[in-house]
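Handout, page 2. Input:
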Amino acid sequence: MAARTPLDDLRREIDQIDDAIHDLLMRRAAVVERIGAAKGNGAAENGTQPIILRPAREATILRRLMARHAGSFPAQVVVRIWREMITAFTRMQGPFAVAVYAPEDRRGFWDVARDHFGGFVPMTAVNTPAAALRAVSEGTATVAVVPYPAEDDSDPWWRFLVSADAGRPQVVARLPFGGRGNARGENRDALAIAAVPHEPTGDDRTLLSIEIGGDLSRGRLKDSLEACGLPPVSFCTWHPAGHATGMSGGGPSVHLVEIADFVGQADPRLAKLLERSGDIPVRVNVVGGYAVPLHLG
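Output:
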């Protein structure tokens, strides 16, 4: 028998580490099963469906891991490993599927969705963002993945989220969370939409729909938001068919405004914004938000 070399010892150590990692994965799965049972019991008592998707919790986990990460192993790969694990463990608690806006010429969104939700989750490609949203509303998908809004979208998908219904689907995450990797296609981010609560993580963005029924320019709206402590990051505007399309007002308009903070529907800053609008009809709804993605270099 050949003498054991230092390389053999190192490989033996790697095998032991692999066994330890595998043991911890099985231990984590057992804990997740107990969590799923606890959620099911609580939902049964309240007569509700258990919430198995917690994007804010997922972001908090990954931020904590990145804060402690050291050494030469790529941080982006750690995020990818944990993203696979998170979705796998989520699926242990209940059905989970994704509908992705991914027509033939926009396959990059499929890659971004796969990287975030894992390579084994059921995913369906659809040809319009509206179809992805409809899949969530009808219950055939847990999450819809749609393009990040752009100012030049002539028929913006986000207008379908403008509602005061607390149970409606809303924005819950921005993708990619840990870098694009080798995803194909244009360098445009995506948003994940699901019928789960918008929860704070400590570093968040919130999307507000602001419906204006009169003459209020975007500049004045921006000033009002800032005066109420709602710092706007970006605007997208949609004018219903048959009305003026000028940016200075002149007719009903709906704005999607990204705010650099967490904002809940009961946030007093929203009431303050309505007070500042005076006689101009204004309606504000939170259409969700997301944890700010990691910047890993």
